Amino acid sequence: MIVTGSNDGTVRLWETTTGKPIKTLKGHEGNVWHVGFSPDGKQVISASWDNTVRVWEVENGEVVMVLTD
């Protein structure tokens, strides 16, 4: 699985073998500049121009934490 961030404020999960999208995670209100997986691969972390960092559950796509400045 690959994770990407987008200028439309979304985070996307992609299937590596087919290149097809698996999930689109919505919640940021600005460009998403940085994304990554947690060491165990169960969560995605994203940082956005909206001054938030979000932690998402990969399995269900829900936000479990929002960090702001």
Fold and architecture overview:
With 69 residues, the chain is mainly beta. The protein has one domain: Thrombin, subunit H. The protein has strands at residues 2-5, 10-14, 21-26, 32-37, 43-48, 52-57, 63-68. It has a four-stranded antiparallel sheet, with no helix packed on it. Strands 1-2-3 form a three-stranded antiparallel sheet, with no helix packed on it. A hairpin with a 5-residue loop joins strand 6 (52-57) and strand 7 (63-68). The mean pLDDT is 96.
Reported by name, the CATH topology is: Thrombin, subunit H
Number of domains: 1
Helix content: under 10%
Biggest sheet strand line-up: 4-5-6-7
What structural category arises from helix and sheet content? mainly beta
Overall shape: globular
Please give the CATH class: Mainly Beta
Which helices and strands appear, and what pairs or packs with what?
Elements lengths: L1 E4 L4 E5 L6 E6 L5 E6 L5 E6 L3 E6 L5 E6 L1
Antiparallel strand pairs: 1-2, 2-3, 4-5, 5-6, 6-7
Short overview:
The chain has 69 residues and is an all-beta fold. The protein is built from no helices and 7 strands.
Structure keywords:
4-stranded antiparallel beta sheet; 3-stranded antiparallel beta sheet; globular; mainly beta; 0% helix; Thrombin, subunit H; single chain; 69 residues
